[in-house]
Structures are given as C-alpha cells and as structure tokens.
Amino acid sequence: MGFLIRDAVADDMPQVLELIRELAVFEKEPDAVEVTVEELVSEGFGEHPLFHCFVAEVDNEIVGIALVYYRFSTWKGRSIHLEDLIVKESMRGTGLGSALYSEVMKYAKAKGVRRVEWVVLDWNQNAIDFYEKSGATLLKDWYLVQMSQEGVRKFVANL
User: Of 63, 53, 54, which Cα lies nearest the Cα of 1?
Assistant: First the structure.
C-alpha cells in the first residue's frame, strides 16, 4: 500500500482533528481534546505559525500525522518537540508511523536543531520499543509536569 507524506495545509485540519481525537481515545482520555479546527488553522497557518504538521495520505484520506514545534533549551539551544505522531488504527503496522517519524528526523536535520524530544506513555510498549530501536534515549528519571489553565488561574489568584 502506497502513501504520500507531505506538509499539512489549513484545509487538512478537520481530518487532523479527527486523528487527534482518535489518539485521545487510544490514550484513554476520550474527552480531553479541547482544541478546535479553527484553532488549528489560526495557530498553525497564520503569520507566525506555532507548529508544523506532516500528514500521511492514502487515496486522498489523511491516515497519519506528525505535529512538531520549536522549543529552546538553555543547554542545547533550538530543539524540536514532537507533540504527536498519530497513525489511524487501521493503518498501524504498515510502516506509515516509521515513515512519519523519519520525516520528522529529516526535518530536524534540515533545521539544524540539536535535539528532538517527545513524551511517550509508559504503557505504550510498542512505541517505547520502536523509539529505543531507533536510537532514542528514554529519560526515566524525569517527570512530565503540567499546570492546567484552571490550575494557573487558582495559583495566580492566590498570589
């Protein structure tokens, strides 16, 4: 089965959002997605885009995405964060995920960044095995830390 990997365009965002929602179900957070198509379009394709997205197509249907954005490390300088690499469930095991991952790494090399980083759920053993086999390092002594919008509001209110 052949697929095409290309840079996303604004018109792809409805299908991209469908895949984001599919990922949320896979990650056992089906109601967590708050982002809208309009936000994806305005934040990814405006004057100062906040992310770059690759899409994988089969027969004009988007069946996979990889969404990345720049970060800045005080130790390494400019880096890329891979926010999500999503492959439609029916397309897993076809090599499409590997192709998207390779596209991200080629993009990182072309941009001259010193590091690509991402997070993976500790129970997603297939992904962990794939990343380790690719040469990536899992930093098991670090915690991912987040503060929700409501948490920020509460924190600031208590200052």
Answer: 63
User: What's the pLDDT score for residue 2?
Assistant: 86
Q: Which amino acid is at 157?
A: A
Q: Which of 69, 70, 131, 143 is catalytic?
A: 131
- What pTM, to 2 d.p., does this model score? 0.93
Short-list 51, 60, 138, 130, CA closest to 97:
130
The conformation of residue 71, written as its DSSP 8-state character, comes to E
Q: Which residues contact 73 (CB under 8 A, 6 or more apart)?
A: 79, 114, 115
Report domain extents, the chain.
Answer: 4-157
Q: Confirm whether 131 is a catalytic residue.
A: yes
Amino acid at 44: G
Residue 113 in this model has a pLDDT that exceeds 90: yes
Buried b (16+ CB within 10 A) or exposed e, 145-155: eeeeeeeeeee
CATH number for 4-157 (one of 3.90.25.10, 3.40.630.30, 3.40.50.620, 3.40.50.1970): it is: 3.40.630.30
Nearest alpha-carbon partner for 33 in 47, 42, 21: 21
